Amino acid sequence: MAVLVLAGYLLVPAAVQAQQVPEWLQNLKLPNSAAKSIMTPSAWGAAFGSAFLGAGIAERTPYLPTSDGIVAMGYGMGDPVLKVGLQIGTTVSDLSEFNNFSFSVKIHRYLARGTSIAIGGESLFSKDASADDAGDSFYFVMSHVVQAFGSSSPGIGRVHVSAGIGSGRFFRKSGRDFSEGKGRNGTAAFGNVAVEVARSMNIILEWSGTNLLTGVSTTIQMRNVPISLSLALADLTSYSGNGVRVLAGAALAVSF
């Protein structure tokens, strides 16, 4: 499954009016706009008026020499600060035929200063049960951001940590992994850590439930639209797959 780096997953809702925002959120120095994860979800989500579009590619598929690509888009509804936010999306995981559509949903809520929780599902209603998206995958995740390195500049020095548990792709390995003696199941637990090394750049380390990934993400502004670019290495351990793969992705997000 190719990397998903959807900046819209990570944007703070733009639709909430300043006079409605709780004091703890007004005082929070919010995270930068670069991606916080590579293939695992965070508890931050799109809210009312936010939409996103992203694409990713892997230079090869596990155990195959062919490349793999994915396109995803979605929209946010609700208010995760005062009530709950709802993010819905659709994914195309077979770009050669432009089919195998699936859907995703995330319900997310801010708990306190710098903390959010979410429940969600991915790869829902996929028409191809043998597709590399591992079928229906459900999860619960909590995310927290802290100012760890003493920088007073917005968007620098913060550390974003997410931890969760899930089914589907977070737990099941591929049939080829099983036949290669690597077991049938992963850990189900997943997590990611993103460190802001610059105003628009994060270094990411991630456990997907079946393997380790690392990468870098940065954001550029094009006509006031943030475009997130990411480059990562996947399958860093022998726990699954057959060697390190290179992943790349791009995403943009807009607020209406």
Helix and strand topology:
Layout: H1 23-26, E1 50-58, E2 68-78, E3 85-94, E4 99-112, E5 115-124, E6 137-147, E7 158-166, H2 175-179, E8 189-198, E9 201-207, E10 212-222, E11 225-234, E12 245-255
Antiparallel strand pairs: 1-2, 1-12, 2-3, 3-4, 4-5, 5-6, 6-7, 7-8, 8-9, 9-10, 10-11, 11-12
Class based on secondary structure composition and strand pairing: mainly beta
Q: Please trace the helix and strand order, writing H or E for each element.
A: HEEEEEEEHEEEEE
Fraction of residues in helix: under 10%
| Largest sheet properties | 12 strands, antiparallel, barrel
CATH superfamily: monomeric porin ompg
State the end-to-end distance.
31 Å
Global morphology: globular
Examine the coordinates and then state which fold CATH places here, giving the name of the CATH topology.
Porin
Going across the biggest sheet, name each strand in turn.
Answer: 1-2-3-4-5-6-7-8-9-10-11-12
Strand portion: over 45%
Uncertain ranges: 1-19
Relevant terms:
256 residues, Porin, 12 strands, disordered N terminus
Question: What does the model show?
Answer:
The structure is a single chain. It contains 2 helices and 12 strands. With 256 residues, the protein is mainly beta. The chain has a single domain, classed as monomeric porin ompg (Porin, Beta Barrel), CATH 2.40.160. It has a 12-stranded antiparallel beta barrel with strand order 1-2-3-4-5-6-7-8-9-10-11-12. The longest helix has 5 residues, at 175-179. It is globular and about 55 Å long. The relative contact order is 0.21.
